[in-house]
Amino acid sequence: MHRFFIPPELLTNPTSAMNATASPSQESYTNVVAPLAGARPNSISLPKDLAHQVRDVLRLNIGEHLLLLDNSGDEILATVAKTSKASVEVHLLERRPGTSEPTVRIVLYQGLLKSARFEWILEKGTELGVSTFAPILCRRSMAGLEDAGPAKLQRWQRIIQEAAEQSGRSSLPELLPIRPLQHALNDIPSGAFAIMPWEEEHNRTLHDVLHSIGNVVATLAVTRPTRARPIPALLTRARPTPTHLTLAQSTSVQSTFTHPHTTIILFIGPEGGLMPEEVALARQHGVQVVSLGPRILRAETAALTGVANVMYELEH
Ligand code: SAM
Questions:
Q1: I need a surface site. Which of 71, 77, 197, 266 has the fewest CB within 10 A?
Q2: What sign for the dihedral angle of Cα 136, 137, 140, 141?
Q3: Are 260 and 315 in contact (CB under 8 A)?
Q4: What letter would DSSP give residue 35?
Q5: Residue whose CA is closest, atom 19 of ligand 1?
C-alpha cells in the first residue's frame, strides 16, 4: 500500500495546513487547497503536490486505500473519497501504531563526505533503521562541505522521506545540524552506548563490543518493567519537528514516542579517516573504539556495516 508523510497539522488544523507542503519538515509555501466545504468529518484534502502524485502519477481510484503518516510513529489508513482537477479528498478510516520502527535507536555521527556519498548513507541508513543522522566536521573533513544551504538540506530531507516511505517506516529519521566532532562528543546522552570504528584499531572488534552490549541490554530487560502504550486518539498525535535540538534534547523527545530502550551512537570518520588525536578525545568521552576488520572500508561502507551489525546483534 502506498504510504505518504503529511504535515501533522493537516490532521489537527486544516487551515494552517493551507500553507504546508507534503513534507513535514520543509518551509511552508502555498500549495494546498482550502478544506472542502461540507467535507465529511475525518476527511481531509491532500496537499497539492501529494494530490498530483495520487491522482496523476499513481492514478489511485475512488475507494483505493493509502497510508498517511504524521510522523508520530502511527499509520493512518485512508481511502480516496473524491478527486477533481483542483483537489483530492481522502477519508480517514483508522489510526494504528506503525510496525516497522527500529527497537534500537541508532544515532549516526557521520564525518561529512562529498554530497553524493552522504546522500547514499541517508537513503540506505533510513532503510536500515537509523533514527538520527548527525553530520560532523572532523579534522580531515574536506573544506566547504559544512555550508549546506537550505536547498541541500531540503534535498537531504526529501531523500530521507522517500526512503522512509519506500521502506515502510512510520517515523522520519531526524537530521541534526552539522557540528564539530568535539561538540558531538560533549553531547553523548547518559545511558547511550557510543562506538567509534577506527581503521587503525586492531584489538577490539565491533562484534566484541556489540556482544557485551547485548548482554547488558538482556540483563536490564529482565530488571526493567514494561511500559504500556497509551491508546492514541484518531487525529491528534504528532511529533514536534525538532530543527535545532541537541542530541540530549532530541533523545528525551524521542523516548517519549518510540520507547526504544537502547541508544547506540556510531561515529564514522570522513574520506580522509580519523586523526589519532580525535580518537584519543573520543576515548576520554567513554567512546568504545573498534575495528571493522582488516580491510579499509570507504566511509559510506563503514557506516552501513556499522548500522547493519548493530541491528543484527541488538534488534529483536
Ligand atoms: N579513504 C577512504 C574513503 O575515501 O572512504 C577511507 C576513509 S576512512 C577509512 C573512513 C572511516 O571509515 C574511518 O575513519 C572509520 O571510521 C571507518 N573505517 C573504515 N574501515 C575501517 C576498518 N577496517 N575498521 C574500523 N573502521 C573503519
A1: 77
A2: positive
A3: no
A4: P
A5: 297
What would the grid cell of residue 106 be?
A: 541508532
**What residues contact residue 127 under an 8 Å CB cut-off, 6+ apart?**
163, 166, 167
Per-residue CA distances from 71 to 15, 25, 161, 257 (Å): 19, 10, 10, 10
* Residue linked to cell 478527486: 83
Q: Identify the residue whose cell numbers are 480516496.
A: 80
- Residue labelled with grid coordinates 562506538: 195
CA of 198 to the centre of ligand 1 (A): 6
Mean pLDDT, consecutive 10-residue stretches, the chain (316 aa), reads 94 56 45 46 89 96 97 96 95 95 96 92 98 95 76 93 97 95 94 96 96 86 56 42 44 45 93 96 97 97 98 90
Ligand 1: distance of its center to the CA of 270 in Å?
8
Task: Indicate which residue's Cα is closest to atom 27 of ligand 1.
Answer: 199
Report the sign of the C-alpha dihedral through residues 229, 16, 123, 303, in that order: negative
Q: What radius of gyration, in Å, describes the C-alpha atoms of the chain?
A: 21
The residues, any chain, with a CB within 8 Å of residue 301's CB and separated by 6 or more, are none
Q: How far apart are CA 192 and CA 194, in angstroms?
A: 6
- DSSP annotation of 54 reads I
Residues in contact with ligand 1 (CB, 6 Å cut-off): 197-199, 201, 268-269, 271, 273-274, 291-293, 295-299, 302
Kindly give the distance from the C-alpha atom of residue 292 to the centroid of ligand 1, in angstroms, as a whole number. Answer: 9
**To the nearest 10°, the Cα dihedral for 199, 204, 208, 212?**
-120
The pTM of the whole model exceeds 0.70: yes
